[in-house]
Amino acid sequence: MTPFELLEPTSLKEAIAHIDPDDPEVRPIAGGTALMLMMKAGVFRPRRLVSLRKLGDGFTRIAAAPSGELNIGALASLAVLEHSPEVARHAPVIARTMKRLSNVRVRNVATVGGALAHGDPHMDLPPVLIALGATIAVAGPAGERRLAVEDLLTGYYETALARNELITELRIPAPGATRAVYFKVTAGSADDWPALGVAVALTAEDSRVKSARIVVSAATAKATRLKAAELALIGADVNEKTLQKVAEAAAAEADIIADLRGSASYKRELLRVYTARAVRAAIGGAP
């Protein structure tokens, strides 16, 4: 790696001030699990890294609000999410998802904010958060703004963040009667990068669906809601005919991309199968 300057600000204001929006060789770094790999491979040669590790405990805190909303600091590690009692109570699908996200060494270091800001379409967390209707707080020189996770991701490794904006907090709405699942299909080991990810969150009375969010990832350029598939599900009784209709709608709607983990036709067939499985699992009572 080429030499670089490392700054360790102790306040959010100071951190933002050190990030030059016009200099692509200046980057913030949280866990650094992705950034360090890029640096070792020579893909990214920074002039300056602004470490966020000393911003304070407020950015690693996980707490439930009286309203039932779950607030998660952007510097909380993925391992903390995996083992947090608050996460297990309010969003158990996240705790389950973490167990197959990469390996324990990565989860001990990687942060929530970093995982979202990186914009990697293969990450397991974004589709789950989109299905849950999560939002983020973003801070920059002009102040703070709120953004839905589904609006954060704009393309392949692309986000709506300005160069000098930082994610500070993740907020997950009160779960209510929502049932949520995430299915991950890998071409290698269980914790490998997925060839396909499917997240489903729904509410239902008996077998009739009242609301639904269906999200595909890894097989697409970004984690994406499948709104036609959602419409095919909302108001319907979940039976084999409905599942087939929803699965076909998902496969027709998704803009599938091919990569080393499979062809577009293979991934489209995976999407058909796993959309139906995910809906069936959610309606069956997944918390």
How would you explain this protein's 3D organization?
The protein is of the alpha+beta class. It folds into three domains: 5-48; 58-172, Uridine Diphospho-n-acetylenolpyruvylglucosamine Reductase, domain 3; 179-283, CO dehydrogenase flavoprotein, C-terminal domain (Enolase-like, domain 1). The protein has twelve helices and 14 strands. The chain has a five-stranded antiparallel beta sheet. Strand 11 and strand 12 (194-205) form a beta hairpin. The N and C termini lie far apart (45 Å). The mean pLDDT is 95.
Domain unit count? 3
Q: What is the radius of gyration computed over CA atoms, rounded to a whole number of angstroms?
A: 19 Å
Shape: globular
Give the strand order, joined by hyphens, for the main sheet: 4-5-10-6-7
Distance between the termini: 45 Å
What percent of residues are in strands? 25-35%
> Care to count the β-strands?
14
CATH architecture of the largest domain: 2-Layer Sandwich
Average pLDDT score: 95
Poorly predicted runs:
none
Q: How many strands, what sense, and barrel or not for the largest sheet?
A: 5 strands, antiparallel
